[in-house]
């Protein structure tokens, strides 16, 4: 890609405050910030704490499209955002939203990547060159002719990033760009960002909860506290200041084992832990499963000319948390939707609660099965958060079980939003509202597609505690996820898909341990059956668990 030549003065925010319409609290409170050309800054903090709002100040979406009360000044390469909105700034600031579905403009991948270039009036030969570069850079050249509606969530995310990159902005802003990506896809995107930053000097601001992959790339980490304030620190120092559940496993282990310096990579951690004894501990299976709630017998699903699932034999059992993992496009979402009767089988069949499931008859599973899609905002239509739960209760069959809505909202840290409109809260909060609307019926089978997207570690822990209670009630819980650390800590069983086939099915220690791609940080550091920080700490004698 052609280098960007600029002598611009970067981006400055001076005493910026912002309050959303109808809210009494400030989302941003007298925030000042400077982004120099070539900076790589990672922004992190609690879900709903103001990260997306902060990022949207950089391209003029705040205040031009947000409403509310705005104070202070944002200067983007000498342009005052109070006088110029996103359209004017789009050639200087590339923006990738947290929800890639909302960013697509056309149906075909190549056309969507080209859209911004066409609006800028670039010559056709220059457009062709740029499109080829970004498609190759992000590893999506084979998707160029695909209909965007047929892509997986992770594939859509990379298409959105390609569209932003194609315009060769001076600042690239990304709101949780790896939240829907498998480990391969996340590495490809981050590698592309490294190249843009290192080779071209492109300034990058990246909001992210999963810091294990991005912390080592950052010049600075900006912590958004959630009360309108924020601080900037070098990466290792910033990680130590985060709540324990929001820290990467390497950080948690280093602090609790007394390693001294906080490593940012496995390479650094290996050097620091070289004198520790090799962990040795035996592990018992986590939970015994009950009877099958759902069974897939020889299920094959074909879409167009593509076999998406091929001869799948599986059952999902009560009292078990099952994680479905695999590359984007491996068939995870299709497996979930087929189980619930949302997609037809070419061959084979599905039973849920001993009832055959017919395609298009998901309504017959009301009160038995619950489903949280990859885009949970599609489930929300009521005027308030509480009304969403009340609507779900209203549509349950007579005599169905249900949870207490107020208690459930409190458990999901949503009680203070009960009277808010679902569209007026953050993406992560909307996802938790949709989850509450599904959980309210206490289903026997609960199927979740990327349920922790947009959640910080603290809220993930709360969510999994709620799912753990559901498991104790006998619910069969199935979740498609790319979150390796979450699976390592909470899953009873892992199913690994590739090209629509099951290639591994078993205990997390069997499936994740030793994997080049799916092993968690502690396993990459120590090997064996070690998956979590707790595993590592328990297996090392405390007298030896620190390095002078």
Ordered list of secondary-structure elements with their pairings:
Layout: E1 11-19, E2 28-35, E3 40-44, H1 51-56, H2 61-64, E4 69-76, E5 79-80, H3 86-89, E6 93-96, H4 109-119, H5 124-137, H6 153-166, E7 171-175, H7 183-200, E8 203-207, E9 220-224, E10 230-233, H8 235-241, H9 249-257, H10 266-272, E11 292-303, E12 306-317, E13 320-326, H11 332-339, E14 347-352, E15 355-356, E16 369-372, H12 385-394, H13 405-411, H14 427-439, E17 445-449, H15 457-472, E18 476-480, H16 484-490, E19 493-498, E20 501-506, H17 508-511, H18 521-526, H19 533-539
Parallel strand pairs: 3-8, 3-9, 6-7, 7-8, 13-18, 13-19, 16-17, 17-18
Antiparallel strand pairs: 1-2, 1-4, 4-5, 9-10, 11-12, 11-14, 14-15, 19-20
Helix pairs in contact: 4-6, 5-6, 9-19, 12-14
Write a structural description.
This protein is 31% helix and 22% strand. The chain has 548 residues and is α/β, with parallel strands linked by helices. It has three domains: 11-242, P-loop containing nucleotide triphosphate hydrolases (Rossmann fold); 244-284 and 526-548, no CATH class; 292-506, P-loop containing nucleotide triphosphate hydrolases (Rossmann fold), CATH 3.40.50. Strands 6-7-8-3-9-10 form a six-stranded mixed β-sheet. A hairpin with a 2-residue loop joins β4 and β5.
What is this entry, summarized?
With 548 residues, the chain is of the alpha/beta class. 31% of the residues lie in helices and 22% in strands. It has 19 helices and 20 strands.
